[in-house]
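Continuing the series of single-chain predictions for the mutant panel. This is the parent chain; the variants come on the following pages.
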Amino acid sequence: MDEFIVLSSFKGSCSAELWQDWASLSPFDPTIQPSTEERALIDAALTLGAQLLLVKLGNLPLVRLLWRPTGDTAAFGFFAHRPDVRESILDEAYKILLETGAAQAARSGLKKIVGPMNLNTWFPYRLRTDSEPRSFAWEPQRRPDLQARLEAAGFVGGAKYLSWGVSGFERYLHNTRPDIERCRSRGYTFEALDEKFFRNGGMSELFELSSEAFTENDFFEAIDAQLFERFYFSGSAKSAKSKPCGAMARSPSGKAAGFFYCIYETELPALVLKSTAVARQDRGIGLSNALVYAVAEQLPQIPDLYIPALVREGIQSESYSQHGNVIWKHQYEIFSKDIGN
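Parent structure:
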């Protein structure tokens, strides 16, 4: 009778057997980057102290995860499993996988596990936990099987994040037009996040602004500029129906002051307010609202629907949803487990 086998990377090295088995499960991981980039991302993760874990039954790869230390916490991510295996077998394989990962993390002196989180918060993390029927390529997916197995292993839900579908984008723009007028009167200028912007080195400006602004976020960890430039935006709009767009604001001296990265959902239509950062010295004048207005000026039409996306529950950014009528709401959570004494 076949037995469960655990494979693990060792000191930043991944064997050919482990990589072959790992890659065989990649089609069942909705969070991974485009397939041509996955090996490069995993190799980068290994240099950051990551461990790959995979459980097989005989010669059949069943389940996998990658974990890495970040502070005193282990981030568990890149979860995937074969869908054509009996649930009872998967339950046991996940139990072995999670227990092995927790034991490795504890031996490394870590106190807590969080997940799902691919490396850190620059990459896909969180699970969607509501039952509203709509879904989008840019948001964390609902994975009830993974959630149930994490909870069975002692993980509990923690920080909550929200996205809202809000009707009334024209009203939002009317209410916030004074913000862009004020910023322009003070000498701020706005430009599109288009091919010309990136050709002229714009990615490095996005990196600098993000690195400064995101230090205030939970689980923040600094990231290498090359890793940011290669991977950060690659998974944001995975659908042909989703068109990336955005705007950069420059101060009167020409320095990058803030950006808003958005996604235009062509079929709804709707504008997704995905990611924003404003330099500290340029806050307090309505620049984030002005940036949304600048993005709207680029659109082929002004949609009625806009979607403030992936906002931490209770923070100021929730105000984006207060200019119209909320039609639906999605919720996401990070799960965690204490493992330290």
